[in-house]
Amino acid sequence: GASGGDDDDGGGGGGGGGLYLVGDKATAADVAMAVTLGSYGGDLGPYPAVKSYASFQTSSEAYLKGTENLPSLAPRRKVPFDHANHPSLVKAVSSVFEEAVSAAFPDAEDHGVPPATAEKCKQLKLGDYQCNAAMSLFSKLKKAGALPPDVRSPQDVARAIVAAVPSDNPVVDSLEVNGPGFILCRAKASYLQVHVNRLISTGAVPRPLSAKKDTVVVDFSSPNIAKEMHVGHLRSTIIGESVCRILEFVGCEVKRVNHVGDWGTQFGMLIQYLREEFPDFRESGGANITDLTVFYKSAKQRFDESPEFKDASRLNVVALQSGDPECREIWRILCDVSRKEFLKVYDRLDITLEECGESFYNSRIPAVIEEFDGAGLVAVEEGGAKCVWVPKYRIPLMLQKSDGGFGYDSTDMAALKYRLGDLKATRVVVITDFGQADHFKMCYAAADRIGWVDPARHRLEHIGFGTVMGEDGKRFKTRSGDTVRLVDLLDEAVLRMETSLNDRIKEDKANITSDEVHETACALGYGAVKYFDLRRNPTTNYKFSYDQMLDTKGNTAIYLLYAHARLESICTKGKVKHGISVDDLVSAGKASVDVVHPSERNLALHIQMFADVVEETLVDLFPYHVCDYLYALSTAVSNFVNNCQVLGSPEMEGRLLLCRATAVVMRQCFDLLGIRHVMRI
Q1: Residue range 89-187 in CATH 2.60.410.10
Q2: Labelling 321: which of 10, 42, 93, 257 has CA 20 to 30 A away?
Q3: For the chain, what are the domain ranges?
Q4: Torsion sign over Cα 96, 99, 103, 108
């Protein structure tokens, strides 16, 4: 039967499509397909080919027969959920409802009802989590004529599910039915205690268990040689750094790539200008280029005004690409000078990158063009340009210009080939402004056409970001109309923070000395700039405002860092003034928190949400999910400190431990965002 069988047996065609059908009976292959497709619960991922294949199979007679046999031949295996050790709170809650549905409606699975799931409650004042399975379950059972006689509405289904939840379950309590059939619940304090106590004992935050350990190339920052990094590079740089940290946290092998613009026709004019204006460039090594912006503008002005200069520049491009020793030497000097300027920004922002610029791929482009040509995918346009057309786009990818030169399209295709092939990446993430989204979609579509991409293994993504604007709603520029240098922008944030901290010292409101002001101001200032950007959906524009980002109240890094420092201050006072050391309690095995007060419970609840937030972030790689969580956690900290006396209270030991647990989670969040935490402010 598995080989198709003879025509007389009804095999071969699978009964009108699908797998193999022997007579009117499903084969093991049919049942296996039913199990495989059914296990996805309707979530087949973003790939159209997979969805098309699944649609074809699930409409076949063979699949339908396999589904009929599924309950008896391949019942869903009930694996007990490890509530005490699994880091995901939402999955723990979901497991309770899944078991309750099976208990209340044993035949639900036979009628195609997917496993019940939970999600964060839309209105937190009503509950922590909610389950919406009752409406779907009622609809499917009613359609199948399988409703129990006493069940007449989704509310009845919800009440039956609630009744089937054992009161001694380890995860939830306070269950109630709301609206058309929503089931609301709260996490048990005893469940939260178990996980908070483990965090305190280990000193490590939990990591998602289901995260895929990919080999990921993250292409970010990518400034141009001989140009200063400006505010436009801010978003790619800090978003990319955070994306890398999040992926590394869950165990991915991350290759951080700085795809610098170190190749192209502009180098002809830069080489000529350096040769004419700084004839001693060999001795100086480019040290007399004190301002890259002025250098580039001056070269461009000369190029536009002088035909002789323009002709010489074009000859330099040919010489550079042909390997002329002097041109290559000047090119290397320009790259070195630029690299030193880039490092000023990267050092300030704690950015780690491995440079692999456009020039690296230049020698690889001809082989890529040859591969596309050999596959019959190259179209030769009028003038001799070689292009690749991809579906749904009116313009092609230009692999080779009519003059034989290469451009961005050819470079990016060679880069993609190298990353998938040589680097063995299973996930590629490119972070640029939103205007390049279509370009990368076309590159990915072309890679799919040529066969570089295996939908089951590879994931190609582009994170596009919006524009940083001034408070006037226009592009962020200096008063003279120039683009703002990123170094200057960062230094201004630190300068303002130094002024604020010195004022606090004068007013005796600070816990730092004058000698610590600069280091603290750097952490706060750079962190404020980063967080002000990262807390937003990257696809949106935003107005840059020092006053807003350096505010000590509201959703700012300053507020969050103050909340963390406040927790550490409480722990320090517990040791100095009350003789209770959190570290000693942990070392002695006395790390035990009792979650009793509502503010204690709320803080413990937020701590336990951490792993779910990281897993949510892995879907789109937008760091704002972590920012939203960190702000909610800091708000819970404020409520806890205001409502629960820690120092000198009968519950002091447990509450000091809860402070430490929260601080550990906050520090991990800061690290994922690339923000330096401070212990005192």
Answers
A1: no
A2: 257
A3: 7-73, 89-187, 264-344, 486-673
A4: positive
